[in-house]
Amino acid sequence: MSKIKILHMYADMLDLYGDSGNMEIIAYRCKMRGIECEIDKYSIDSPMPDFSAYDLIYIGGGADLEQQHISEDLVKCRNGIEAAYKNGTFLFLICGGYQLMGKHYRDADGVDIPGLALFDYYTIAEPNRRKRCIGNVVIRTEFTGKTVDIVGFENHGGQTHDVKTPLGEVLYGHGNRTKSRHEGYFEKNVIATYMHGPCLAKNPEISDYIIGYCINRNSDTVAQLTPLDDKLENDCRQVMIDRLLNK
Amino acid sequence: MNSILIIIGKIIVAVLRLFKRNAGNLPGIVLWHLTKGKCCKMFKVDCPIIAVTGTNGKTSVTNCIAQLFEQNGKKIIINKEGNNLDTGICSLLLRHCNISGKVDADYLIFETDESHVPVVYSQLKLETLVVLNFFRDQLDRNGEMETLIQKINGFCKTFEGNLVLNGDDPNTARLGRANEKNKNVKYFHAKPYAFATESIFEASEGRFCPFCGESLEYEYYQYSHIGKFSCKKCGFGNYEPYITAENIDLEKSVFTADGHKYSPQLNSIYNIYNMTAVAAAAKLYDIPENVTDNVISKYTINNGRMETFMLGDRKATLNLAKNPVGANMTLRVMNEMQTEKELLFVLNDNIADGLDVSWIWDINFSVFDRVTRVVTSGTRAHDIAVRIKCSGYPAENITVRPDLDEAVAELAKTEGRKFVIANYTAVQPTRSALKRYAEKHGGKNE
After folding, report:
1. ipTM greater than 0.85, yes or no?
2. pLDDT band at residue B303, thresholds of 50, 70 and 90?
3. What would the pLDDT profile of B331-374 be if each residue is shown by its tens digit?
4. Greater confidence, A122 or B208?
5. Is the peptide bond before A198 cis (omega within 30 degrees of 0)?
6. Residue of chain B whose alpha carbon sits nearest to that of A195
7. Distance, in angstroms, between A79 CA and closest chain B CA?
8. Is B267 helix (H, G, I), strand (E, B) or coil?
9. Concatenated DSSP letters for A89-154?
10. In chain A, what residues touch B358 (CB-CB under 8 Å)?
11. What does B192-214 look like in DSSP terms, one character per residue?
12. N or C: which end of chain B has fewer CB within 10 A?
């Protein structure tokens, strides 16, 4: 039986807009296929884990305050996370998790929070707290090899600059910055996005890309995932796409 | 001819009553056909008619205005059951008229569906029209709301009676310009409350002046597009309020209007606007202040908190859930019941719901015990279905019915105990749908 090992970081502090639901969805889609899915949690003051032992590291989003709080702890994990990433561990990062892997995050008060600088983008929070990017978002992606439009909900003050390989092109909503053309950050083993909702709820292709990657990363052969009945998910997404784009 | 129609109508009412059926709409439908669509024209009404229309709050405001007159010792007729189309009003008047069609009352007070205002009041002479608000909902595709406003605007062009308008809603305030000759236009207005904002909480929607196309400027937004707006170019929105709600304190549930302090039971900004409309009507009709105070301070609605409905012989319990805590509580009550049961979950994502529905992922559906079927409805019916499915509940036992009447019918088609969870803006439409089902199939709202 195949198995994937997941490290869910700061689950108790970074959980906005259903972000923890992403783990429930990954576990559900593994279970439906007979794939064993082990989820460990790491938070401030946990013993330092062996990051490279995990197939997937997941970090959700939080408010400025929480982000500042965990950033000091996260710095201690820097070497471990970097080694895991270079070793092929998948990084799935939402909102705050996304921002903190960049060079730095300047919060709404102008305070710089250092990031892990795994990637060379950086984020500056909009100083006017009322001016946030809030609402449903639709982006067009190609990373699965097919054109897939994905739908989520964004709510961020952070404006992320210098993203060289975005996750997708914005069809509706804001994306990385207010009214920007692109959303998120992508590498073959990194998906970083502002999409909550949770992000995976109506986008089964992302879940399966991540699961497929994790299953195959230590194997020479490429296993095909058993298809699941995604009618509800696909209908759910289509309702939103129709509502948002076909006005 | 009139008498014959009225006798036919009265016979239908009597027969329906004999079989204990609700005569709220059917007699009107029959007469509508017999009169080629003019089913309200045969009545002779000498007393003033007051109509209340708008997207939200019609029932509350209509009931309160009726109480103003009732407590002041007047005989009133009101469409309490919410039969607010021409056929419903016709059915109601059939029960209160004599053979010649004469209606005996001091005031008629009618909640009236937005689209039926011109229909009904081209046949019956209207004295006062209260317009609360116009909101888009999920049904508003391709500008249906604009069409609706145009219809009422068309009616207002020749209307010279009292026009009581929400002055903080550009969609309703614009009706005040429909007839330049009408000197009886009155705007009600509210000063900002604690949670009013400088910018609209809705990211992408621009609001433009219906007269010159310029962007409307807002001093503040109370909720949605309701707030102190004006057009800098043509001056739309610069009016003298007839009545102003101020010192709004939702924590203490108080506000003042015209220097008088009111303490309503329901402490939401929506209700403050409704009650300000009521205060405006009271002022218009010189209702004594103590009567107005009594009405506003006592009015409450049965608001879907563990409320029971009978769908035929099937018992359904409705509970409001604005957040995971509320929903989890209902799930606990369900689980404590040692029988099989079914759940209808109605999920909307309107502005008052906070637009985002991800909170449903914090509801713990994995505790489901002996839940044999789930029906989902609302503007985000699919989202709640996916959420319940991913908790491990079998997808084949989930039915998605975005239309509420269809969802209630789906829920009621099998035997057994029913539970209904609805979020904030879903709860009143859900109550209405449950009542409609009960009216059609027997049963009652307990």
Report:
1. yes
2. low
3. 877 887 788 999 999 999 987 776 789 989 988 898 898 999 99
4. A122
5. yes
6. B358
7. 33
8. coil
9. -EEEEETHHHHHTSSEEE-TTS-EEE---SSS-EEEE-SSTT--EEEEEEEEE-TTSS-EEEEEEE
10. 17-18, 21, 153, 196-198, 201
11. --TT-BSS-SSSS---B-TTT-P
12. N
Query: How far does the CA of residue A209 sit from the closest CA of chain B (Å)?
Result: 18
User: Which residues of B are less than 8 Å from A236 in CB distance?
Assistant: 382-383, 385-386
B395 and A239 within 8 Å at the Cβ level: the answer is no
Helix (H) or strand (E) holding B171: helix B170-173
Using a CB-CB distance cutoff of 8 angstroms, which residues of chain A are in contact with residue B378? none
Whole-model pTM?
A: 0.63
B362 at interface of A, judged by CB pairs closer than 8 A? yes
pLDDT value at residue B23? 76
Alpha-carbon distance A198 to nearest alpha carbon in chain B (angstroms): 6
Residues sharing a CB contact under 8 Å with residue A227, sequence separation 6 or more, in sequence order: none
pLDDT > 70? residue B19: yes
| Nearest Cα to Cα of residue B60 among B233, B268, B227 | B268
Residues B98-109 pLDDT 10s = 999 999 999 999
Provide φ and ψ at A171, rounded to 5°.
-100, -25
Residue A95 annotated among the catalytic residues of the structure = yes
For A186-205, the DSSP string reads: EETTEEEES-BTTTTTT-HH
Would you say A163 and A121 are in contact if contact means Cβ atoms under 8 Å apart?
yes
Size of interface A-B (CB pairs under 8 A): 77
Q: Pick the catalytic residue from A30, A77, A95, A199.
A: A95
